[in-house]
Amino acid sequence: MKYNDNFNALGESYVFSKLNALVKKKRAQGETIIDLGVGDVRLPLFDVATEKMSTTSLDMAREDTFLGYPPAEGIPTLREKISERYKTEGASVDMDEIFISDGAKGEIGNVLELFGPKANALIVTPCYPAYAEANTLYGNNITFLPTSKENEFRPLPPYRGTFDIIYLCVPNNPTGVTLGKDELEEWVNYALNTGAVIIFDGAYSDFSTDGYPTSIYQIQGAKYCAIEIRSFSKSFGFTGIRCGYTVIPKTLGEYNRLWKRRLGCRFNGVSYITQKGAETFFSSEGQKQAIKRIKYYKTNAEILKIALKKAGFWFVNGNSSPYVFAKCPDNLSSEKFCEKLIDDYKIAATPGNAFGEGGEGYFRLSAFPKREDILAASDILENLKF
Amino acid sequence: MKYNDNFNALGESYVFSKLNALVKKKRAQGETIIDLGVGDVRLPLFDVATEKMSTTSLDMAREDTFLGYPPAEGIPTLREKISERYKTEGASVDMDEIFISDGAKGEIGNVLELFGPKANALIVTPCYPAYAEANTLYGNNITFLPTSKENEFRPLPPYRGTFDIIYLCVPNNPTGVTLGKDELEEWVNYALNTGAVIIFDGAYSDFSTDGYPTSIYQIQGAKYCAIEIRSFSKSFGFTGIRCGYTVIPKTLGEYNRLWKRRLGCRFNGVSYITQKGAETFFSSEGQKQAIKRIKYYKTNAEILKIALKKAGFWFVNGNSSPYVFAKCPDNLSSEKFCEKLIDDYKIAATPGNAFGEGGEGYFRLSAFPKREDILAASDILENLKF
Questions:
Q1: Beta bridge partners of residue B323, listed in sequence order
Q2: What is the pLDDT of residue B229?
Q3: Cα B107 to Cα B125: distance, rounded to the nearest angstrom
Q4: pLDDT reported for residue A21
Q5: Residue B15: its pLDDT value, please?
Q6: Could you give phi then psi for residue A60, rounded to 5 degrees?
Q7: Looking at residue B129, what is its pLDDT?
Q8: Tell me, what's the ipTM?
Q9: CB–CB of B208/B250 below 8 Å?
Q10: CA quadruple B277, B278, B282, B283: dihedral, nearest 10
Q11: Which residues of A touch B269 (CB under 8 A)?
Q12: Which residues contact B215 (CB under 8 A, 6 or more apart)?
């Protein structure tokens, strides 16, 4: 039997599973653990979305409203709404540059088929582990570009080297850092000068509410060098519904045409019910609710930061994501500190080393839990003594 | 910029697009075309499924019933029901060997990541074009094993050669041929003896109602050499909902473990709404409706066959799929005949050469349209003169 040897290089994602096992064990022992280690949302969907999905479901039972295979690229009405939305962000994206997906996680790896095997990928860390894992599985060569406390976790293009693909997550998971227009311009110019394609992960772009660019396409030239991946998961509570979108500009080499060809043999589209639900994000009620929800999560993050500040922690100055990325005290390793946090303080956090180089010695707190849990955790955190 | 060179080998899927363009043109000219060229279902979903999806949607708006990320491998209740169903088919499949997917088309290519690049794939033709296309895109080496009128389109293992992967579609699209127990045993033994893994595409298994095996796992040894891919699309009308499942036995080398690892970095599961809808397939009402629906489509196929017989066509003796695969008259090529069929008789069929080697000189009629269209088409077909 033949195996994909790249699985060996992949190894086990032991950091998360170790933590999950520990939380599970503690809870089984009757302990109450406040889980700030998860990236999943905790608040329910909005009525505007669930009611639309409910009626779309029922419509599928009627001959006159039944629908078979969805278009592989997504339904036109949703793609039009996304295109319109880009206009309000100061970016111009045609609907035939927009492809509806079942979420960002899959697409992060799916796009690799455009570049083919043995591509050279530059991955800015700390970051979502799936970037490196998908590239490893596909057999690409990976170079990491770690950010750190020294540069305030703000990545700049490398001085040396050329790459086929560059992964940038803005606002960043786990650090919460959003890049400014000038910083993104440097990245776009670097990509244009070296022939690289930026994979711009905007899964948290709706959390960027302070005037920073929300799309790479707000930067001149980006439509010649960037793919953008976005999602309804975090701002619209769609983690359990699975919907996102990927932009591949027609001006980006041959990639738009090739992606359509790929869809023809690899994908049959996203459920109508899901897409109709996603459409309500762009309604006035959907926007009202989403904005309120984002504020709720960002306030959660602020509450956590105030507590960490009181206890004397250093944390990254990132205000645009639902995460707080903080330095472990006493030069403790990420895992050591997170174990201690569970054992002694009953709070689960994600060890920073799970996010790759630059993450060791840090931990991530999620602002997605409900307010009561955030407040309970902050009461504990502000009195932390090490 | 770096491109995946395999796109060049892929070429354009011109047969389908050419036909679709022709149908569109004719309709734009005001002509009425009966479309028997599509593999999509035409009858609506069952109430039992849509009502469950509707209530699941509404539940997602309530704090106490909201659900975030689904398990990547699928929800336990659906996997249990599938496992139970296998028992009734005389196969033993544990729920932790079952993985819920968003449909068969994606999975046909996704499984290639288990074997890694440069695998040797044997593809029995005529077949669904996505097998060859996904393998080409991944950079595998493909050997075709064409079946033909001479062997009644019943594939047997090759005498020579070893392969890493073997694609078998049973019941077959486009021919409708189902393999018997003895034939599948030959394939399983061949795979066991040569170290190959069979990718058993059972997308039409629910249409096999004549006592033939419906699962490869009814064959002794298959759990050591076969992956099975099934779908809710055709028998349950789920083409627009997107749900299927993939079985990777724990006894199949390391593949079950590796697939779980792959899901960890490449997939975030299928919508709860979709999975809850799929579950109703296994309810008594769901089964009652599905069986009735399958009978409807199979009767459609029989009506088409009677008409073709009257007109003197030779067609494949396949009774277990919603397709009829027939020989073009006068040794016409597939495309020539299908063009003539549209031009002179206003019926769209799929040219057999779209399904690869062995398909040239044939055409496929779909039994998925509504009865009235099938009857109208059969009136025309039985009087065909060439």
A1: B366
A2: 98
A3: 19
A4: 85
A5: 77
A6: -70, -10
A7: 94
A8: 0.96
A9: no
A10: 0
A11: 242
A12: B86, B89, B91, B93, B200, B202, B205, B228
For residue A122, what are the β-bridge partners? A143, A166
What pLDDT does residue A15 have?
A: 77
Pairing of strands B226-231, B244-247: antiparallel
Ranges of residues in chain A whose predicted pLDDT is under 70: none
Whether the CA torsion B115, B121, B125, B128 is positive or negative: it is: positive
Place of tokens 């023809």: A264
Report the pLDDT value the prediction gives residue B128, as an integer from 0 to 100. Answer: 94
Q: Is A12 on the interface with B (CB under 8 A)?
A: yes
- Nearest chain B CA: its distance from A14 CA (Å): 11
Q: Which pTM value belongs to this model? A: 0.97
- DSSP run (H or E) holding B246: strand B244-247
- Which ranges constitute the DSSP H helices of A236-322? 255-266, 272-279, 284-310
- The pLDDT of residue A11 is 76
CB B251 within 8 A of CB B97: no
Q: Which of residues 212-231 of A touch B (CB under 8 A)?
A: none
User: Which has the higher per-residue pLDDT, B10 or B362?
Assistant: B362
The pLDDT of B239-258, averaged and rounded, is 98
- Whether residue B385 has pLDDT greater than 90: no
B197, B252 contact by CB (below 8 A):
yes
The confidence score (pLDDT) of residue B54 equals 98
What are the beta bridge partners of residue B142?
Answer: B121
d(CA A175, CA B89): 51
Per-window interface: B 135-174 vs A, CB < 8 A:
137-139, 164-165
Residue B21 has a pLDDT of 85
**pLDDT at residue B38 above 90?**
no
The values of phi and psi at residue A167, to 5°, are -95, 120
Contacts of B68 in chain A (CB under 8 A): 40-42, 239-240
| pLDDT at residue number B77 | 98
What confidence score (pLDDT) does residue B321 get?
84
The pLDDT value recorded for residue A111 is 98
Per-residue pLDDT for B236 more than 90?
yes
Which one of A41, A68, A270 has the shortest CB-CB distance to B40? Answer: A68
Burial string for A240-265 (b: 16+ CB within 10 Å, else e) reads: bbbbbbbbbbeebbebbebbebbbbb
**Of A359, A301, A352, the residue nearest A176 (C-alpha):** A301
Tokens of residue B26, six digits: 């004719």
In the chain, the amino acid numbered B59 is D
Euclidean distance between CA atoms B347 and B360, whole angstroms: 19
Output the six-digit token pair for B250.
């724990």
Query: The dihedral of CA A108, A240, B279, B41: what is its sign?
Result: negative
The closest of B54, B28, B75, B117 to A6, measured between CA atoms, is: B117
